[in-house]
Amino acid sequence: MINKSACKEVSNRKVKEHRWEKEIKIFLNHKLGMLGLGGVVFLILIALLAPIISEPVSGYGNYEDKLLAPSANHWFGTDDMGLDLFSQVIWGTRASIKVGLIAVFVAMIIGIPIGLMSGYFGGIYETLGMGLTEVFLTIPMLPLMIITAAVSESTTINTVALIIGIFSWPSIARITRSSTLRVCGMQYIEAAKSLGLKTRSIIFKHILINASTPVFVNLTIVMATSIITESAISFLGLGDPLAYSWGKILHNAYLSGAFSTAWWYSLFPSIGIMLFVISFNFLSMGVRDALNPKISRE
């Protein structure tokens, strides 16, 4: 006798595989999404291969090499201390991706549990979780981040990333809650409850997986905004003084007085920031459209 539950499981697995094939196909045909993915892969490769591409920036440069325009010897020119800007921008890519990853991880481990608990349990959990979220959303985040970075005893690139992550979780919490409420209303969640499955299993194996699409899209946006925030903090001189991030390069350009006169000093780190933000925004657009149920059914 054929096991009906086994047949149903095989059928569901085939449906999921077919759905993933359609979603991947939609993403591959999404021009902006593929462009964003190419930019992200390019930036990751630069970060990983930074030790091979250029030497780490350290010490002081030669006075005679001060503020040299781009040339065969210095592709991006030099700064006011005679240091090579190409090396600074390359290593700044690694610093920027590091900030983004840490910020996303911190925002995720704070925002997702709050959103899940608020959406699934409701009641006091929702009141406290969404109340805290609303408080954080009403506070001007950038000034508060700047104040936090200013009063921090030891400002490192990890500290800056941690600060950005701590203040970036509210949007993730709200999206997780709304997705959780949508999934909780589906019949298979009610069936799982009636079968006596553990709450932890229902939340993490059924709700979180099926509610993860908008959360993942928002995480890519947090990744993009984190570099803008880090650049703003570093530009104000509150970043890591020992790390060459793109914001730190712009800060040095401003302090030297060559921000506008030596065009290459501010141009190339600005291009790096722009490429980072646009790539992750385009990637989020592609992922959002590929995982959109309305588009997937077409």
Walk me through what this model shows:
It is found in: Cell membrane. Its main location: membrane. InterPro entries: BP-dependent_transpt_permease, MetI-like, MetI-like_sf, OppC_N. It comes from Maledivibacter halophilus. By secondary structure, this protein is mainly alpha-helical. The protein has one domain (30-54, 81-293): Orthogonal Bundle (MetI-like fold). Helices cover 75% and strands 0% of the residues. It contains 14 helices and no strands. Helix 2 packs across helix 13. The protein starts with a helix and ends with a helix.
What is the compact description of this entry?
It holds the Pfam family BPD_transp_1. The chain contains 14 helices and no strands.
Low-confidence stretches: 1-17
CATH level 4 superfamily? MetI-like
Tell me the count of domains: 1
Counting DSSP E segments of at least 2 residues, the number of strands comes to 0
The helix/strand order is HHHHHHHHHHHHHH
Query: Largest beta sheet, briefly?
Result: none
Strand content: under 5%
The number of helical elements comes to 14
> Could you give the distance between the termini?
38 Å
CATH architectural grouping: Orthogonal Bundle
**Computed CA radius of gyration, to the nearest angstrom:** 23 Å
Q: What's the CATH topology name?
A: MetI-like fold
Q: Please, what is the average pLDDT? A: 82
Q: Report helical residue fraction.
A: over 70%
